[in-house]
Specification:
Gelsolin-like domain-containing protein; 8-stranded mixed sheet; alpha/beta; phosphatidylinositol-4,5-bisphosphate binding; ADF-H/Gelsolin-like_dom_sf; 7-stranded mixed sheet
Length: 384
């Protein structure tokens, strides 16, 4: 097994296929005549799927989504190649929230059946999805009709490129906070939008959110009662009483508050011998860029793999060998894969230590028994 190739894998710019055309980010450099990037995007049109019918979303609400619902989003744009060739394209997304019922949907009126329909699931959207929404994307827990604008809402701010930053609501509790992330707390009782920054976030990251993106502007227009809310910023470890009261929880589950900028992106490898040969396949982050990504992977990457699964998580100075839910007793293949995984992990730790000249620890972790340090390497975690 090539441990060196795992540790020093080259960055690959993400690409998408739109109607059989290779598409890159608008900010990317086109290096061949077969690659296109987007120009002149139209404002998206959005429909909510309700009981098999489509309800058009008002323009001012586009970009406001709910995780128990599904939506159809239409977008038109130009594609330009290196040779300045222009193509007029349309794309339709069928977006499904993480708690929404799965199902089919009719196409909106006027859309030709030849227009590609891309199915995307919350937390796994491609970069093009977020580039679609000029005002950003805000996903709240539950359904639109049940939304309580007088309650507190804690929003994780995710994404490394300004045009792809999005806010996803997480449970309003201390265990949801992450030292490598920024959050927005919507606190109607105090008439405030509070930005909470973890101690390991960079000043540039904070500026991109608060000064450049300014997501509170969208929320003020969405809910009239929020129009006059003020904006404040706080840092982990120096929270106000109002914040701590609104975000309760066990102090022992707080994220670590070490004041050190985390300038690394985690790596995740799926270890298996499904093909007959033991392999380590790197899991790719759909929004990867040249920037540091604090949370490129999800809990679902681990638990949706064929069990019992084996994953190696490289979280800089902590290397985790995760063992999945063992459903076969005395499985010879799994026992053999586990031995190979343990040997690989030892070699990986040795090379990582030699490379960064810091102490690197190897941890063995079992499904359902993950410690806080492991859980905090993911943007959110639901105990199984």
């Amino acid at each position: 097994m090539d441990v060196t190739g795992m540790l020093f894998s080259e960055y690959r710019e993400p690409t998408l296929s739109v109607n059989f055309q290779k598409v890159v980010r608008p900010s990317s450099t086109i290096r061949d005549s077969f690659t296109y990037k987007i120009e002149k995007p139209s404002d998206p049109i959005c429909w909510k799927i309700a009981d098999g019918k489509l309800l058009e979303v008002p323009q001012r609400n586009i970009g406001i989504l709910f995780d128990s619902e599904s939506y159809i989003i239409q977008w038109a744009f130009d594609l330009r190649s290196e040779d300045q060739l222009l193509l007029n394209e349309q794309l339709v997304y069928h977006w499904t929230g993480q708690n929404a019922k799965k199902g089919a949907s009719p196409l909106p009126p006027g859309i030709d059946e030849s227009v590609p329909v891309e199915r995307v699931v919350q937390w796994s959207e491609p970069f093009l999805f977020f580039q679609n929404f000029v005002r950003g994307v805000f996903t709240f827990i539950g359904c639109d009709e049940d939304f309580d604008e007088n309650a507190c809402h804690l929003m994780l701010i995710r994404g490394e490129i300004v045009q792809e930053i999005h806010l996803y609501e997480v449970p309003c509790e201390r265990a949801s906070l992450r030292s490598r992330a920024s959050f927005m707390l919507i606190l109607p009782g105090e008439k405030s939008f509070i930005y909470w920054h973890g101690t390991q976030t960079s000043l540039e990251h904070r500026k991109n959110i608060v000064a450049v993106l300014q997501p509170e502007k969208v929320l003020r227009k969405w809910k009239h009662n929020w129009a006059g809310f003020n904006v404040t910023e706080i840092e982990q470890g120096v929270e106000t009483e109002a914040f701590l009261s609104a975000v309760p929880g066990d102090e022992r589950r707080n994220p670590p508050s070490e004041r050190k900028i985390a300038d690394f992106s985690s790596k995740l490898f799926y270890l298996n011998s499904i093909t007959g040969t033991f392999l380590a396949t790197e899991v790719e982050y759909s929004l990867r860029s040249a920037n540091v990504a604090p949370f490129p992977f999800l809990q679902s990457h681990l638990y949706t793999a064929l069990q019992p699964a084996l994953f190696l998580l490289d979280n800089h100075t902590d290397i985790w060998l995760w063992r999945g839910q063992k459903n076969v007793i005395n499985d010879a293949d799994y026992t053999r894969d586990l031995a190979s995984a343990e040997e690989l992990a030892e070699k990986y730790v040795t090379l990582k230590h030699q490379t960064i000249d810091e102490k690197v620890a190897l941890h063995h972790v079992f499904a359902g028994e993950e410690p806080i340090g492991f859980k905090n390497a993911f943007p959110f975690w639901h105990d199984k």
